[in-house]
Amino acid sequence: MTTKPEEANGSRKRKPRPQGLEDWRQWPNYEAATLGLRNYWYPTVWARDLGDKPQGIKLLGENIMLIREGSEVYALHDRCPHRGVKLSEGKKVFPGTVSCPYHGWTFDVTDGRLCAALPDGPDSPIVGNVSVRSYPTEEALGLVWVFVGDEKPTPLRDQLPEELFTNDYVAGGRITPGRYGNWRFAVENGFDEGHARYLHRDQAFMMFRQMPGWARTKIVADEDGDWLFRVQESVEYESDFPGLGKWPRRKITQVAQRKMTPGEVGKRLDPTIRSLNLPGHISVRLPGLLRVAWTTYLHFEWYVPEDENHHRYVQYAVRFKTGPSDFAFRLRYWTYIRWLFHGKFTGRDAWMVEEMDAPPERLFRPDVSITRWRRLVESAFEPKQDKKKPAPAKKP
Amino acid sequence: MTTKPEEANGSRKRKPRPQGLEDWRQWPNYEAATLGLRNYWYPTVWARDLGDKPQGIKLLGENIMLIREGSEVYALHDRCPHRGVKLSEGKKVFPGTVSCPYHGWTFDVTDGRLCAALPDGPDSPIVGNVSVRSYPTEEALGLVWVFVGDEKPTPLRDQLPEELFTNDYVAGGRITPGRYGNWRFAVENGFDEGHARYLHRDQAFMMFRQMPGWARTKIVADEDGDWLFRVQESVEYESDFPGLGKWPRRKITQVAQRKMTPGEVGKRLDPTIRSLNLPGHISVRLPGLLRVAWTTYLHFEWYVPEDENHHRYVQYAVRFKTGPSDFAFRLRYWTYIRWLFHGKFTGRDAWMVEEMDAPPERLFRPDVSITRWRRLVESAFEPKQDKKKPAPAKKP
Amino acid sequence: MTTKPEEANGSRKRKPRPQGLEDWRQWPNYEAATLGLRNYWYPTVWARDLGDKPQGIKLLGENIMLIREGSEVYALHDRCPHRGVKLSEGKKVFPGTVSCPYHGWTFDVTDGRLCAALPDGPDSPIVGNVSVRSYPTEEALGLVWVFVGDEKPTPLRDQLPEELFTNDYVAGGRITPGRYGNWRFAVENGFDEGHARYLHRDQAFMMFRQMPGWARTKIVADEDGDWLFRVQESVEYESDFPGLGKWPRRKITQVAQRKMTPGEVGKRLDPTIRSLNLPGHISVRLPGLLRVAWTTYLHFEWYVPEDENHHRYVQYAVRFKTGPSDFAFRLRYWTYIRWLFHGKFTGRDAWMVEEMDAPPERLFRPDVSITRWRRLVESAFEPKQDKKKPAPAKKP
Known about the structure:
Three copies of one chain form a homotrimer. The first copy, chain A, is an alpha+beta fold. In chain A, about 20% of the residues lie in helices and about 30% in strands. Chain A has helices at about 30, 165, 185-190, 195-200, 260-270, 270-275, 325-355, 370-380; strands at about 40-45, 55-60, 60-70, 70-75, 95-100, 105-110, 115, 135, 135-140, 145-150, 170-180, 215-220, 225-235, 240, 245, 280-285, 290-295, 300-305, 310-320. In chain A, strand 16 and strand 17 (about 290-295) form a beta hairpin. The two termini of chain A are about 35 Å apart. Chains in contact: A-B, A-C, B-C. The interface of B and C includes residues 15 and 193 of B.
């Protein structure tokens, strides 16, 4: 396929073309990926919150137990093979192990091997003959990462934004397990071009921002095809809708505001963010990470599949300063960003992700952001030499 | 079928005949009508409670959004075709429209046509190419009525009790959405001959009434076949049950009471009610409306199908007086009828409608009221020239 | 099959053998008995709590209504055949009967025969033509017993511990309906060799007891094959687990304790319990009764199947003394046993029965108790002349 018609929807003259079928047949791997994309790293809990008391989580339909042993974190399949009890209900009896609460079957956290079945004595013949699946883990960005898949794990750093490794920064964030809605609705809502201008318009976080009414948008990929960017070719701040009236109405808080040119905005950008040369301030990448470039900080959000109807929602705000501004950003995060942005603002998104009920669906021009994202997922399944080939999660 | 054996069950000499199968195969259209009878008008909400804030309801398995525009009320299918969000979660942005909360897709409330997709600008090519289903609506008796079906709607008045259009009256009522139980159990319980004498006997609303223990009953239809009436051929107030004892026991509150002859009762009847010449004080009609003629007022109740297991329960008490008695009836309604009748008394019915679990079932003589009602539903499906032909609701 | 390898697992030299498949195919009747074993007596409610107000319970997937009439207790199928309402929601209107709350269908509690349909009068032709199933009942040990099955009931006493009929005793107990988990998990947990030493080790009820870390155990049956006993061939109190460390750690409360020889324990045994000559202090029998012999009292628990995921849990502590020690044991029961044993201790079992999720399963040596119990159930289905042949419960 050489033409990519949905990538350039800016021309006003073009006749409307169908935006695709009302179902998802044209994205078969995406349609099948109800439980998420396998063979990726996923963020789970704050590293500081994980100690030697095991924690149980759900990831891509699988129950997983997390535990810390010294400076390392480990993940095992959260089911004792004996009678099916969750290991995360158990505890650490000996260093480097976790014991099932029921009969004290004791597993080595590093590899899942059964190293004792306590009530059967030291000579228990089952020791060494049973093990539970272990998952690759990493600690990075203050988060515990788990690799779910059947292939050899790629380096975690390959899958994360490079700027988080090459700069110092201070961060604040919020993890919401069990957020309702399939993970695909969450990604689509995050990268969705159209809804922000309507759904979020009257929210407190937007009070002192100039928000366009609508825009002509195209989607561009970066060089190595990791990120997709929403790029606005033109924006309108107030329009006359025939037979209806003007929309959007100017907010009273905006009356005195001056619209800044993109150039002016650029000058006020944080230098590190400016150095990234992002073609658009919203971008998305596999397996479901959104990046929003505000003027002074970056916001990331991961949509981590849990089961068919729930995902873990990880919000992460990054300020590329340290020293005194460390404290200043923390203060701003805890008094403002966490409340109005990571709480109220994205809470309205949570409402829509919960309400969404598609397919059937009927897409419109701004949904080029959604269809392009779906194609990105499909492309990950294409056989290429140096491409990851994730498989859709199977029901466990 | 020329004999109608279940219509006359008064003879004590007749041998017991089976009252039908234990399942509903002999009423195939009735059995299929799990979600209600289509091509009828249904009452939904109080007209005074509907403004320009949309309300979402469920009707015959369909999600429907109601909204008022000036003096008119409108109903649309409550699902934005874009991504499946409910329109009733949205709001009125421009006069005569409702906008989806997610992307501001804006629909004309009169016909469901998409008239703007706000974040795509005034030239959005999708405008005019999408619409949602609209439903015929009427405002009458202080209620908002919606016609659900595939045929041209009949006039609402044809389906309502004529006396409500030819007389002045004052009314009080109660709407209960989400009442548990399939609508058919609710109708059957309402028109059911037998249960009142047992289930309701000891209720406060019955304290000063003489209630027979049992009766010989027949079911008669009025001339044009709209209403079915329960007519008591004989009543007994206390009987000897062999091997068990006397039942019912006289209530202490009834000791001084005199049984009135039907003639005496007739004289005390409200003149308008008397003029109706009702052959029985309980009657039922399609698609599920019960009328109870008390001495001084009429009580109506509609059983409006919501889904397989729930119905909207609309109670409506009518006094054919205006002027000072208007206030007197309102006082009586709010201090007595609403509490003891529309609350406590029919609350016990709600309990039984919730408990009912049939088929299988094993009917007995008084259930002639139920089988006759089922036959009325079946007859509505028979091909006749001037008959409505409703189809059972399909799962949406 | 002449060898019974799982009955003797004491030899340390033997090579590990597979403990069976990971599913339950080798116990086909057991696997099928999701709803319980039919043709047995089951305890239900305390006899003192059953009066002439009907009570509804669930037993082997069937809804059953219990009622007392004078000194006798009765059980009927808890569904009025008329419209499916539960008889246990009704009441006793005439002696010896129960009436459905809806239409007063009145059933003889002794045989389930319809003896009046009140609102149809004394000559109702349906009387005598309808009945509901009745269940054999007995009152014994202060409990109401119901026989569920299709065969002629065996005498209740044949199914109960003989010592409860040949001795005076005082008892205390606790009935928990709706305990989560299939009844088979509850039995298996009760007779399970291994979990006690790990799961219950740190509980208050165990504070002053010496609990071994592990044991070599064999399962023996009594002469007539009614009871299976867990017999410990050797016990260890603290062991070195290679690469892990010592387990179990001595509890501080045990430091001063002296391990008693079995002979010493025997001398302190209650004389009646000693006279039973039990080969082990834990035993189990069909259809799911556990007996624990403590030094001074016996503890019984019945696991009564309710539905696929719930059972009624009946705990019963018996002290073979009367007179002044009657009061002493009651005091001990209500201040100590009921709280720490029948509440806290078995509450932790309830947690595991709820968590268990098998098959698949992977058994280990101590699970000989479980596999032997499963074989006992299978043996009950073998065609023998003087054996009961229960059939697995069918879904009702």
